[in-house]
Amino acid sequence: MDSKKLLEVSALTRVYREGDIETNVLRGVDFSLDAHEMTAVVGASGSGKSTLLHILGTLDAPTSGKVLFRGQDLFRMNHAALSSFRNRHLGFVYQFHHLLADFSAFENVSMPLLIAGVPRNEITERVTVLLERVGLKDRMHHRSSELSGGERQRVAIARAIVNKPDLLLADEPTGNLDHRSAGSVFDLLLELREESGCAMMVVTHDRDLASRFERVLTMRDGVIQ
Ligand code: ADP
Ligand code: MG
Questions:
Q1: Can you point out the beta strands (E) in the chain?
Q2: Which among 40, 98, 121, 140 would be 20 to 30 A from 185, CA to CA?
Q3: pTM to 2 decimals?
C-alpha cells in the first residue's frame, strides 16, 4: 500500500431495492484520497453524492466494492469496531446540522469526546477552546434550538473536528444558509481543516465554493467522471 493514501475506494456500488424496483445509485465509484488532501464533490441532484458520503462516513454500507482506510477494509469490521473507528477517525457535517436540539452547543460538541472516554476536565478545556475558536464564546451554553442556522453549522463543524479526525466529510454544509452566512461558515471550515491538517471531502452545489479546491470530483449518474 502507498503510505500517503488515506482512502482507496474501488468498484463501489449501492443498489436500493424497493419491492421489485432496483435503483443503481452508485455504479462503480473509484478514487483515492491522500492523507491531508482536500477535494470538492460536485454533480447534479440525484447523482449519488450523499449516498457516497454516507458510505465513506460508515453511516451506510455499499452493495459491493471496497473502501480501504489506510489499507484496512472498513466494511469487514464488525459493528462495534466500526462505531469506534468512526468516533476516532471520521468527522461528518450534514446539510441540516443534526444537533441534539435540547442540548447546549457545549454538550453537543462534548458528545464525541464522552464516547471516546476523554476525561471530563480535558473535555471542558478542549470544547471551550474550540467553541471560542468558531466564534461561539457567548453562545456555548445556549441550547442548539436557540441558535441561528449559521451558529448551528459552526457547532456542527466543531463537533465534527473535536476528536481530531483524519477525514472530515461534509455534505452541502452551507446548503441551507443564506449567501453571507454560507460564505463565513465555509471560510471557517477551510480554516479549521488547514489548522488540523485532516483530509476533507466536501459536497457542494456552489461552483464558486468548489473553485476554491485544487481537486474537484464530478459525479454523474452514480460514477465519478
Ligand atoms: P445527491 O446527494 O447527489 O443529490 P443522493 O445520493 O441523495 O444524491 O441520491 C441518489 C439517488 O438515490 C436518487 O435518485 C435518490 O432518489 C436515490 N435514493 C437515495 N436514498 C434512497 C433510499 N433510501 N431509497 C431509495 N432510493 C434512494
Ligand atoms: Mg445530497
A1: 5-18, 21-34, 38-42, 64-69, 72-73, 90-93, 167-171, 199-203, 215-220, 223-224
A2: 121
A3: 0.95
